[in-house]
Amino acid sequence: MSTKAKEILALALIFAFSLIFYIGKVLGWGAVRFSTTVSLIVILLVALSLLWILILTIRGHLVERRIVFLYVGIAVALPLFMTLSQRIAISPEVEAVYNTLEGLPEGSKVLVSFDYDPPSAPELQPMAEAFLYYCFEHDLKVIMMGLWPQGPMQANMAIEKVLSDEKIKSKNLKYGEDYVNLGFQAGYEFVIQRMGSDFRSMFPTDYRGTPYEQIPLVKNVKNFSNIDYCFNLSSGFPGTREWVQIAVDRYGVTLGAGNTAVQAPQMYPFMRAGQLVGLLGGMVGAAEFEFLTKWIGKGTKFMISQSFAHVIVIAFIIIGNVAFFRSERKTGLKR
Amino acid sequence: MEHFALWLGGFLTLGIFSFLYKDNPWYKLTEAIYVGISAGYFVVVYFWDNFYSKFWVGVFPHKRLNEAGELVAGVEPDYWLIIGGVLGLLMLMRLLPKVGWISRWPLAFIVGATAGLWLINYFASFVMVQIQNTVTPLFGADYNASLFVIVGNIVVAVGTFTGLIYFFFSKEHKGAFGSAARVGIFFLMITFGASFGYTVMSRMSLLIGRIDFLFGDWLGMIR
Description:
The structure holds two protein chains of two kinds. By secondary structure, chain A is an alpha/beta fold. Chain A contains 13 helices and six strands. In chain A, strand 4 (229-234), helix 10 (240-248) and strand 5 (255-259) form a beta-alpha-beta unit. The longest helix of chain A is centred in the C-terminal third of the chain and has 34 residues, at 298-331. Chain A is elongated. By secondary structure, chain B is an all-alpha fold. Chain B has a domain at 137-223. Chain B contains six helices and no strands. The chains are: A alpha/beta, B mainly alpha. Chains A and B meet through helix 1, helix 3, helix 5, helix 10 and helix 12 of A and helix 1, helix 2, helix 4 and helix 6 of B.
């Protein structure tokens, strides 16, 4: 069979697979779950195949890069079907966010800035949901905004999900009194700067178009001095650095942050310097915060996949090094 | 409509993944759609949020009345915005080769204003506070720091000092100076390693998000 024919066959198989399971979903087949035994067998098979690849590498047969992609895909996908759970240890940075929230009395005003877009949602959305859940559960008033155009939409999605929880639903929270979405405002860090003197000048209306002065929750909020705690969910610029620079260092705001793992290491100096009061870094930060707030969402669910993927990456780093040292010995190259 | 949206999402996601096999027309189509939609989306968002909401409504404000039928304060036209509008217009002169040089004026204004506004802030937040926090008593202010904190302080002090030595190029890296620079390299490598580890974690998270969409939202195989 020619390569072209194989490719067409693979595409047809993918389409057929998708169609069958989609029809199954519509007909209500339900989710696929591996039992613990099946999960352990699958893990064992993957481990054995990795060992086989290592042996092949030692013998001088190098694997193709697509095999690496395939293994990463398997490592990410299979755990989503498994019934295994993972112990989550709480880091001091995450605990600091939780402790600060715990110290806020009922009715405190919390400002949450959603400075990210859908590509970063797998990491930041679970943090947003757990954060909002905690706030609503403890009767904190939440003011949401975004320095990124899609931020307020992410906020709405998180709100919708949290409000569908039975415990939160029973509280009968009202938009405009218990929480409000002020929407997006263009202007990057200058928005934070102006908010330091006047919130209303940056948000004359909320996301729904209601004038600022007609929203009970914020009509008496003039600037940061009326905010008890600020939380920034960020995946780049403008984000936590700008909030630290202006809101914290200039206006003395108490700030916690949830960041994508890529930029989390850059935030640790701010933590050490006390400019940030707590940090949720990446999916692991989300999972830890979910554990503390008892909102078990996608952060916890995805952590197994994350751990499996890391094991696969480590395994291939070892295999790659074996291949490197082997080729070095074979060719007589010396560093 | 929901079915169509899910299938379109699945089609585009698989199209992007198909690049892992090799470059192909499916991937190229998906990439072009992504780039085009992103550009179009941001043009529309920034037009309405910047040009219309800030400039146009600022110069020609809508009349807003309160419940008593009086004009709400703060709706007077803000003619200062016209200066910004003119500078914005001058920026577009870049599109005309003969008068393209005019675009340097608004650019100079932006660079000057940004530097003036943020210079002190940057220095205070990212330099002074960080230096202040690096220069701390090794054993705590009252010699009561825990062993963990003391070790942390020593690591910060040694890492900062040797890291700075590594970036000092006016003296040849030889002898004790060279050894300190080599220690600095180790600290830098550890920092890059930690950053790389976090980056891998982040990229995996994005992949997990898409896989969750494919098997969860689209095919309903996971919950």
